[in-house]
Design brief:
The complex is a heterotrimer. Chain A has twelve helices and no strands. Chain B is of the alpha/beta class. Classes of the chains: A mainly alpha, B alpha/beta, C mainly alpha. At the B-C interface, helix 3, helix 7, strand 8 and helix 13 of B face helix 4 and helix 12 of C.
C-alpha cells in the first residue's frame, strides 16, 4: 500500500517551500502597498494645484521642490534623526534581546521586558507632552541647550521596542546547537557571539532596523513638541501645512526621496555583491 | 557595519555643524505654510540676519512648548485669545510696537484690541473671518444663514464638512438659535446640543482640510476661513463665501516676541519691518488674508482687495472677536462635543 | 570551567567538586553581570527618557486642569472620575456615562480587526519572502518597506484618490460594469480599517519574516513524509515554529493602532472620536491635561495587564523546557 501512494505524495511535496496561494497573496500585498505610491508619483506631475484631481502634465512641482529650502531642510533633519535613531536603537535592542530571550527566567527579566516595551504602550501625544516637560526641566537644571540631541533621544526611545520585537522573534527558539558547538571548540563568549550568533541573527536585526527607520522617519506627534528651532522634521512640516492647503510639491519631494532610496539600495546591493 | 559607522559619524558631524552660531539670527515659530519666503528673504537682505522658520498647527501646541520653557524661539504668531493668555501669564516681552517707527501705519481700528490695548506687545500679522464656503453649482439659493449647516437643503445633505473645533461649532449653533455666546444657561446648551446632534448625520466629515474636498467635489459646503476659501475659489470659481446674517466671528493672528528671546533686537526689527505697508502686502499676498496695515492696498492686486472674501459686503453683520470663555463653560462645551462625537 | 574539569583527574574528589562548584559560581556571576550589562543600555535609555516622562504623566493626571491649558498644582482625582461619570448639564449631579468607555471600545475593536487583517495578509507574504532564494530575501525586505519611506499623510491622500466616490476604484468598477452608482468607500469604517492595515503591514510582516526565515524546512519535509497534507503541515509545523513572530507582529500592530489618530481622522471623516483623537483633544481645544493623562494611563494599564499575562505564560514555558 505504501508503495502505491508514496510516488504521488513525493511529487506534490517536491516544492516543499511552496504553499499554494501564498505567492498570490504576497504579490497582491505588494500591489496593494504600491498602488498609492504609484498614484502619488503620477500626481507629482499634476498640471493643476490639486492633490485630489489630475489634469494635465507639469514639472512645476519638481521645480518648486528644488527651490523650497524649508522643505528640503525638513527632509534633511528627518533623515539625520532617523539614521541616528535607527543605528543606536537597533544596537541597544540587540543587546537587550540577546539577554532577555532563550534564557531561563532571571529576576527582573519580566520587568525588563515591560520597560523595553513601555514606549510602545503610551499614546504618542502624552509621551510628547511629558517628554517636552521633562527636557525643559533638564535644560533649566543644567542650563545648557541640548539642540537636536533632544529629538534624537526621544526618537531612540520609541524606536527601541520596534527594533527589539523582530530581533526577539528571530532569537526565540533559535537553535542553540551551533553556539554550543562553538563553545565546545573553546570559543570565548564574545567570539561565539560575533561569529555565530550575530550572523544568524542578522535578518532579525535588519528587519528591526528597517522598522525603526520607518517609525522614526514618519513620526509627527512627538517630533512636533520636542523639536527646537531649526529642527522641524518633514512630517511636522507637511502636517502643519494641511490647514493652509498642500500642493503636489510634496508629492514631488516624496518621489525624489523614493528615487534616492532606490538608488541607495541598488548601490549598496551592488557594492556588497562585488565585495563578496 | 563600517558603512553604518561612517554614516553615523557623518550625520553627527553635520548635525553639530549646523549648530554653529551665525552672526545675527532670528527664530520664527509660525503656523504652517503661513510665511511668505519673499518676505523673509527681504528681511534677511535688509538686516543681514539669518532667519529660521518652524511650524506649528495649533495655538495649543505652540503654547505648550513655550510654557514648558522656550526652546529658542524669538517670535511666535498667536491668535488673539492666545495673545491675551500669554500676556497674562507673563510669557511675552513688552516690546512696545506702539513706539516703533512704522506704528503709524497700523489701521486705527486694530490698535485698541481686547487682547492688547494700545499694542504694547503685538503687531497684526493677518486677520480673517470664519464662516463657511458653498459650491453654488450644487446649491444656488441663499447661503447667508447657518441653516445651511444645521438644516441643509436636499442638495447639500451629506456633503457638508465642519471644522473639528468645538468653539466654532458651538458658536455657530448658538448664533443660529439667537442665543448669546460663552453660554452657561442649561436650556440654551441643551438646545445647542440638540441642533448639533440632529445635524450631524447630514454632515459628511469633520476635518480641517477644506480646500481639497471642496475643489474635488467630495463636499459642497465647508466651514472654514475666508482666505482658504479664496484659494479654493481660484481653483473652482463657483465657490462662494457665506456671510451668515446671524453673525460670525473674526480672528487675528499677531506677531509677538517671547520674553526670553535669544535675539531680542532682531525680533523687534522684525515687528517694525512688518508694519511697513509694502511688507504687509507680501504677507497678505501669500496666504490671502487681510493684514492690519493701512496703505498696503497699494501693493496688492485689485482683485484681492475687492474679493468678496476680503471686502465684507454691505448689510452683513460686523464680525466679532470671541475671547475665550470661562472654565466651566469650556468644560460644558467639551462635554457636549464629546457626546456628539462618541 | 575547562581547567576545573581537567584538574579533576589530579586531586581528591572533594577538592575537585569544590573547585567545580566555585568555577560554576564564577561563571554564573559573570553571566549575570553580562546579562545586566547588556540590557542596561536599553533600560537606562528607556528608564530615563521613557519612564521619567511617564512619571510626569502620572503626577499630572492627579492635578487640576488650568483654565488655559496646563495644570494647577492641586491634588484632584477629577480626571479619573470624569472617565466614567459626567455632570448632567441641568442639575449638576453625577451620573454614569458610557461616552468614554464607548470611545475606548471602538478603538480597541478597530485595532483588533486591523491586527487580524494584517495577520491574514502578512503571514503568507512573510512566508513567501522567507522561502525565496537567499540572495533575493533582503531585496524583498526593501521592497516591502520602501513605500513607508514616504510620508504617511501623502500616502493617505493617495488612498483618498483611490477610494473617493469618483476615485479609481469606483471608476474602475463602473467601467467594468459591476456597479452603476459609486460605492461609498471613503469616510467609512472600512476605509479606516484599510488605511490602518496599510500603515501597519510592515510591523506584522517584518517580525514574521524574521521568525520564519530561520525555519528548518526539513521539518516541513518530515511533515509531508508523514503523509500530512498542506493544511496540516501549516497548522502543526509552520505556525507553531512561527509563533514568536506572530506574537511579536500582533503586539507591534495592535498596541500602536489603538492610539492611532491621523488615519482614522482622515479616512474616517472625523465624525467619531478614537482614543487618539480624544486624548489629543484634551491637550488641544478641551484644555484638560489631567484628563488626557488619565485616559492615557487607563489605556496603558489595560495594555500592560494583557502584556503581563502573555509574558508570564511564555516565560514559564521557557523556564521549564529548555536545554
Amino acid at each position: 500500500m505504501a508503495e502505491v501512494s508514496l510516488p504521488t505524495r513525493r511529487k506534490r511535496g517536491r516544492d516543499l517551500k511552496k504553499q499554494g496561494g501564498f505567492g498570490t497573496v504576497a504579490l497582491l500585498c505588494v500591489a496593494f502597498l504600491y498602488a498609492p505610491i504609484v498614484v502619488l508619483i503620477v500626481f507629482s506631475f499634476n498640471g493643476i494645484k490639486s492633490t485630489a484631481q489630475m489634469e494635465g502634465f507639469s514639472l512645476e512641482w519638481y521645480g518648486n521642490a528644488f527651490e523650497n529650502e524649508d522643505m528640503q531642510h525638513a527632509a534633511w533633519i528627518s533623515l539625520q534623526v532617523a539614521l541616528v535613531a535607527t543605528v543606536v536603537s537597533t544596537a541597544i535592542a540587540t543587546c537587550a534581546a540577546v539577554v532577555t530571550t532563550r534564557t531561563r527566567p532571571w529576576r527582573g527579566m519580566t520587568g525588563s521586558y515591560m520597560v523595553i516595551n513601555m514606549p510602545l504602550m503610551v499614546p504618542e501625544i502624552v509621551t510628547a507632552i511629558a517628554t517636552l516637560i521633562f527636557f525643559a526641566l533638564i535644560t533649566t537644571a543644567l542650563g545648557v541647550q541640548v539642540g537636536i540631541a533632544k529629538l534624537m533621544l526621544a526618537h531612540i526611545v520609541f524606536c527601541i521596542p520596534f527594533a527589539y520585537m523582530p530581533i526577539r522573534a528571530r532569537l526565540e527558539d533559535m537553535d542553540k546547537t551551533l553556539e554550543q558547538a562553538a563553545a565546545d571548540l573553546y570559543a570565548k563568549p564574545w567570539q561565539a557571539f560575533r561569529r555565530v550568533t550575530l550572523p544568524l541573527l542578522m535578518p532579525g536585526i535588519i528587519a528591526g532596523a528597517m522598522l525603526a527607520f520607518v517609525v522614526s522617519f514618519d513620526d509627527f506627534t512627538i517630533s512636533q513638541l520636542v523639536a527646537g528651532p531649526g529642527e522641524t522634521p518633514l512630517p511636522v512640516y507637511i502636517y502643519t501645512s494641511i490647514r493652509r492647503g498642500i500642493t503636489p510639491e510634496i508629492n514631488a519631494l516624496s518621489t525624489l526621496i523614493l528615487v534616492a532610496s532606490i538608488l541607495l539600495v541598488t548601490l549598496s546591493f551592488l557594492v556588497s555583491r562585488s565585495r563578496r | 557595519m563600517r558603512f553604518f559607522k561612517t554614516l553615523l559619524a557623518s550625520a553627527a558631524v553635520l548635525a553639530f555643524a549646523g549648530a554653529a552660531q551665525a552672526e545675527g539670527e532670528l527664530h520664527i515659530y509660525n503656523w504652517g505654510n503661513y510665511t511668505n519666503p519673499d518676505l523673509v528673504k527681504k528681511f534677511e537682505e535688509k538686516y543681514g540676519v539669518e532667519v529660521t522658520i518652524d511650524d506649528y498647527d495649533t495655538n495649543e501646541t505652540m503654547l505648550a512648548k513655550v510654557r514648558a520653557g522656550n526652546p529658542g524661539y524669538d517670535i511666535v504668531v498667536p491668535t488673539d485669545y492666545t495673545v491675551k493668555i500669554m500676556i497674562d501669564e507673563g510669557l511675552l516681552a513688552e516690546t512696545r510696537p506702539d513706539e516703533m517707527a512704522n506704528f503709524k501705519n497700523v489701521d486705527p481700528k486694530w490698535v485698541n484690541v481686547y487682547f492688547d490695548e494700545g499694542r504694547k506687545y503685538s503687531v497684526p500679522w493677518q486677520w480673517g473671518t470664519t464662516t463657511f464656503a458653498v459650491d453654488t453649482a450644487v446649491y444656488g439659493g441663499d447661503i447667508d444663514t447657518y441653516a445651511i449647516l444645521f438644516d441643509p437643503p436636499e442638495e447639500l445633505v451629506d456633503k457638508i464638512n465642519m471644522q473639528p473645533d468645538m468653539y466654532e461649532a458651538m458658536n455657530a449653533a448658538l448664533r443660529y438659535l439667537g442665543k448669546p455666546l460663552c453660554n452657561n444657561n442649561p436650556d440654551d446648551l441643551k438646545a445647542a446640543y440638540a441642533v448639533l446632534k440632529e445635524a450631524k448625520p447630514k454632515w459628511r466629515t469633520i476635518e480641517y482640510g477644506m480646500i481639497q474636498p471642496l475643489v474635488s467635489g467630495d463636499v459642497a459646503v465647508s466651514q472654514g476661513w475666508n482666505g482658504a476659501t479664496m484659494r479654493a475659489r481660484e481653483q473652482k470659481p463657483t465657490i462662494k463665501y457665506a456671510y451668515p446674517k446671524e453673525g460670525f466671528s473674526a480672528w487675528m493672528d499677531n506677531v509677538v516676541v517671547l520674553k526670553d528671546a535669544p535675539n531680542m533686537d532682531n525680533a523687534k526689527l522684525f515687528q517694525d519691518f512688518i508694519m511697513d505697508p509694502e511688507n504687509a502686502a507680501l504677507i497678505s499676498d501669500f496666504a490671502k488674508y487681510a493684514n492690519g496695515i493701512q496703505g498696503s492696498e497699494e501693493y496688492l492686486p485689485a482683485e484681492f482687495i475687492e474679493a468678496p472674501e476680503i471686502t465684507i459686503p454691505e448689510g452683513a453683520p460686523t464680525p466679532v472677536f470671541v475671547p475665550l470663555c470661562p472654565k466651566d463653560v469650556q468644560d460644558k462645551y467639551s462635554q457636549i462635543w464629546t457626546n456628539l462625537l462618541k | 570551567m575547562a581547567d576545573a574539569v581537567q584538574s579533576l583527574g589530579r586531586s581528591t574528589d572533594l577538592d575537585a567538586v569544590a573547585r567545580v562548584t566555585a568555577a560554576k559560581a564564577r561563571v554564573a556571576r559573570r553571566a549575570l553581570r553580562a546579562r545586566w550589562g547588556l540590557v542596561a543600555p536599553a533600560l537606562l535609555v528607556i528608564g530615563i527618557f521613557g519612564i521619567a516622562p511617564l512619571l510626569i504623566t502620572i503626577v499630572y493626571s492627579f492635578l487640576e486642569a488650568a483654565t488655559y491649558g496646563g495644570v494647577i498644582w492641586n491634588f484632584s482625582t477629577e480626571a479619573y472620575v470624569q472617565f466614567l461619570f459626567e455632570e448632567d448639564i441641568f442639575d449638576e449631579t453625577l451620573h454614569f456615562s458610557w461616552a468614554y468607555p464607548q470611545i475606548f471600545g471602538r478603538s480597541i475593536l478597530l485595532a483588533l480587526v486591523t491586527t487580524i487583517f494584517c495577520l491574514l495578509v502578512g503571514f503568507p507574504t512573510a512566508y513567501f519572502m522567507a522561502t525565496r532564494p537567499p540572495g533575493q530575501r533582503t531585496l524583498w525586505l526593501f521592497l516591502i518597506t520602501l513605500p513607508f519611506w514616504t510620508n504617511l499623510l501623502i500616502r493617505t491622500y493617495a488612498m483618498f484618490i483611490i477610494l473617493r466616490d469618483e476615485g479609481l476604484v469606483n471608476n474602475g468598477l463602473i467601467w467594468v460594469g459591476f456597479i452603476s452608482e459609486p460605492l461609498r468607500l471613503l469616510h467609512t469604517d472600512f476605509a479606516v480599517a484599510l488605511g490602518l492595515m496599510y500603515s501597519f503591514l510592515p510591523f506584522m510582516v517584518l517580525p514574521l519574516y524574521a521568525a520564519l526565515e530561520k525555519m528548518d524546512f526539513r521539518l516541513v519535509e518530515a511533515g509531508y513524509d508523514l503523509y500530512a497534507d498542506r493544511w496540516q503541515v501549516l497548522r502543526k509545523v509552520v505556525i507553531p515554529l512561527a509563533k514568536p513572530g506572530i506574537v511579536a507582529g500582533c503586539i507591534l500592530v495592535f498596541i500602536p493602532s489603538i492610539g492611532a489618530y491621523v488615519t482614522p481622522l482622515l479616512l474616517g471623516g472625523g465624525k467619531e472620536l478614537m482614543i487618539g483623537n480624544l486624548i489629543a483633544l484634551q491637550f488641544g481645544n478641551a484644555r484638560n491635561w489631567p484628563f488626557g493623562c488619565a485616559a492615557a494611563l487607563i489605556l496603558l494599564a489595560m495594555v500592560l495587564v494583557a502584556l503581563l499575562y502573555y509574558v508570564r505564560s511564555t516565560g514559564a514555558k521557557q523556564g521549564l523546557g529548555h536545554g
